Amino acid sequence: MECIYENEYKEFEAFLKSQNISFDFDMIKKAFEFCCKVHKGQLRRSNEEYYIHPVSVAKIVAQLGLDSEAVCAALLHDAVEDTDTTVEEISKNFSSEVALLVDGVTKIGRLSFISKEEQQAESIRKMLIAMGKDIRVILIKLADRLHNMRTIEFMPSQKQRDKALETLEVYAPIAHRLGIRPIKEELEDISIAHLDPVAYGEIENLLTGNNAYRTQMLETVKLRIKERLEKDIPDIKTEFQSRVKSINGIYRKMFVQGKSFEEIYDIYAVRIITDTVADCYNILGIIHDMFRPIPNRFKDYISTPKPNMYQSLHTTVIGREGVPFEIQIRTTAMHETAEYGIAAHWKYKAGIHGTDESMENQLAWIRQILESQSDTGDASEIIRSIKVDLAQDDTFAVTPKGDVINLPAGATVVDFAFAIHSAVGIKMVGAKVDGRIVPINHVIKTGEIIEILTTNQAGHGPSRDWMNIAVTNQAKSKIRSWFKKEKRAENIESGRNELEREFKRNGIAFEEDNQYEEFLLDIARRQHLENIDELYAAIGYGGVVLARILPNIKENFNRINKQNKVVITAPETVQSRRSKATDGVIVEGVDNCLVKFSKCCAPLPGDDIIGFITRGHGVSIHKRDCINVPKNIEEAAEPARWIPSYWADNTPSDFLASIQITAIDRQGLILDISQTLVNMRVALHGINARPTKNGNSITLITVSAEGVEHLKNIISRIEKIHGVFHVERLNQ
Predict the structure, then answer these.
(1) pLDDT, tens digit, 9 for 90 and up, residues 430-459
(2) Could you tell me whether strands 324-331 and 268-274 are parallel, antiparallel, or unpaired per DSSP bridges?
(3) Does residue 656 have a pLDDT over 90?
(4) For residues 374 and 723, what is the distance between their CA atoms, to the nearest angstrom?
(5) In the sheet where 324-331 sits, what is the strand order?
(6) What amino acid positions are annotated as catalytic residues?
(7) 566-608, pLDDT tens digit by residue?
């Protein structure tokens, strides 16, 4: 190591010693030197030397209380990805344990992927697999992402937004599920600052404007409580803290739930930390005697912990000034878990061993996400699972026996049934909520007592519609698995019909049967399936979503078509077709005519179309399957007015298309739809929503689409939104 870095290492070593953890400084110094050596000459976007980033990540890892191997892995986490260093080299120079951690954090970047989204999903999948073997992988990755977000201002504007969105949708939920509150809140706040800077600034100003008054009020409250506790329970040990809600937490309530700043009661809180659970409840009794509690604002997370291990008593009360505020009461151990989550095992319990049964239970969600993804073979399913199953808003429902089932907000009784046991979900025929029969798509509210009605009738199973009703990936995975095992013949037939229909619609055809079979077999192998029947079955039960893989299928077909000159079924006039037209449509045998697109069917590029010669208004273009187009042109009243038409190569880029979205009626749905379109850079021209009698909603939107395939991609993305169970294109 060059002497220029000696002072930097001394500062780094001093920082590690301040953490009061027993580190192997010989190994850490060796890793520091290795890091500086392999990254020598590299600069970050901020023009800082690159080694500063891994050193900063290592500091965050040390603050979490992790061990020497984790600190070394943090120092080396970019060595494999950004230099010529190999995992084997790290294993040889350090240890197989450090190499495993570095490999788990390293992104998959040297393979060929269809899209950036697929690459991202595969990298997260790899990280989760490594995380299942050693939880330190994700803790290092979170530290890496946190430092990158702290320096996000040096990235290009679009990359700032992309990184912020990915952080908000993937990494913050993981940090939340692991219970690491400080990292989760900082990741969220930085993300919101770059995704919605106006709202962020507004909330920041509101907090600053109220800060002095609220601080004084909370200090007065803490003093009053302390004096009362010393009087009533003189031997009790307590520590008092103040807490201000994160900007993202306020943002979610103001801009997603539509509350005003004054309607958010838990912006400021007093936190009381004591020794025992009994002390917590004793203090709660005194608090409710001193202040007036607000009804329905008490939460007991001690008896019912959150999935991320969080435990505390929360109560919202009103003080003398008439201002509501929250009081949180917890033990010291609970506070350590609330601050450091799963990392508290290292910080306070000297590490985790593979035989730790409680750890297995706490990380069961990783296994569920990976199992669900393996059913579909689609890596992007992981992203959806993280966004839905690791949602921060939890719902607590109760079985008739008193067991508490934790589910994400928006979950239905279908999710509840499969959360109890897969056999209960499969045999379900109905449900009662608080003794009342409810529909299958009933959205669960916290505190409801739910009884699942089942049948022992042979051959009974879930309906395919349940896939659109279920919210959790656990339920969807179990439903898919049942159809995969029990309805194989039906799945094969359904999948074959769907595939043939899509091939016909997209003009994919082969002269020879063996060419067709080879093409299908190639598709099956790309989806990790053994044969064509497996492909049909996977499409039939939903394991393979045809809309997602169709663009790649068409690309492969076009490549084979060029190589082998495969003939596509098409009219004989193809050879004489013109390729360009002012309006994007060529009307056969007619030049420079006025062309308009009919509103009855709103054709898009990619649709099979036909023209109708109007009286004085040019040619009206219809979809070939439009209700106003005769099935048999020759038998039409005026067959000569129907004229062959097709899309030109220079088709205009924007067409208006209408989409109908059927979903569970919930707060934030319109915002989620709008955000999805913004992320896809799709222009939204109109939106109209209305509730239905069964608790659902119908939303009509008008968007700009470049063609049928683009519209399919839009529909596919909207279908992934939480609570959406049916999306279809409409005639305009």
Answers:
(1) 899 988 898 888 988 877 889 999 888 766
(2) parallel
(3) no
(4) 23
(5) 239-244, 268-274, 324-331, 313-318, 292-300
(6) 81-82
(7) 444 443 333 344 445 556 777 776 666 777 878 777 787 777 8
Cβ atoms within 10 Å, residue 385: 24
Tokens of 699: 């939303």
SS3 724: strand
- 66: β partners: none
Q: Please check whether residue 74 is in contact with residue 61, taking contact to mean a CB–CB distance below 8 angstroms.
A: yes
Q: Mutual orientation of helices 488-505 and 546-564 as an angle, nearest 10°? A: 50
- Per the CB < 8 A criterion, the answer to whether 183 and 340 are in contact is no
Measured CA distances, 630 to 603, 605, 617 (Å): 16, 21, 20
Cβ neighbours of residue 321 closer than 8 Å, sequence gap 6 or more: 217
Nearest alpha carbon to residue 407 among 470, 357, 363: 470
pLDDT tens per residue across span 269-301: 899 999 999 999 999 999 999 998 988 788 888
| Rounded CA separation 481/447 (Å) | 30
Tokens standing for residue 426: 């499969």
- 198 in helix, strand or coil? helix
Residue predicted with more confidence, 563 or 19: 19
pLDDT (tens digit per residue) in 111-166: 334 445 555 666 666 666 666 667 788 889 899 999 999 999 988 888 888 889 88
Contact criterion met (CB below 8 Å) for 182 and 339: yes
**What is the distance between the alpha carbons of residues 176 and 513, in angstroms, rounded to a whole number?**
53
What CA–CA distances, in Å, run from 627 to 112, 597, 614, 680, 700? 44, 15, 17, 32, 21
- Alpha-carbon distance of 151 to 128, in angstroms, equals 25
Amino acid sitting at position 190: I
- How many other CB atoms are there within 10 angstroms of residue 40's CB atom? 13
Q: What distance in Å separates the CA atoms of residue 294 and residue 405, rounded to the nearest whole number?
A: 26
Sign of CA pseudo-dihedral 141, 144, 149, 155: negative
Spatial contact of 247 and 189, defined as CB atoms under 8 Å apart: yes
pLDDT of residue 32: 93
Residues 6+ apart with CB under 8 A from 523: 535, 549, 553, 556
Q: Give residue-wise pLDDT tens across range 526-541.
A: 777 778 888 888 887 7
Highest mean pLDDT among 334-338, 602-606, 703-707: 334-338
Main-chain dihedrals φ then ψ at residue 729, nearest 5 degrees: -80, 140
What is the torsional sign of CA 213, 217, 219, 220?
Answer: positive
Question: Worst-scoring range by mean pLDDT, 221-235, 352-366, 462-476?
Answer: 352-366
Question: Which amino acid is located at 408 in the chain?
Answer: P
Angle (CA) 477-480-482 rounded to 5° is 110
Assigned token pair, 435: 């003794």
Single-letter code of the amino acid located at 502 = E
Q: What is the Cα–Cα distance from 370 to 386, expressed in whole angstroms?
A: 11
- CA gap 301, 329 in Å, rounded: 10
Tokens representing 704? Answer: 């700009």
Q: Report yes or no: 407 and 394 within 8 Å, Cβ to Cβ.
A: yes
What is the C-alpha separation between 609 and 623, in angstroms, rounded?
4
**Strand duo 684-691 + 696-705: pairing:** antiparallel
Which residues share a beta bridge with 689?
699
- Tallying the residues shown for the chain, one arrives at 732
* DSSP secondary structure letters along 138-191: HHHHHHHHHHHHHTGGGS-HHHHHHHHHHIIIIIHHHHHHTT-HHHHHHHHHHH
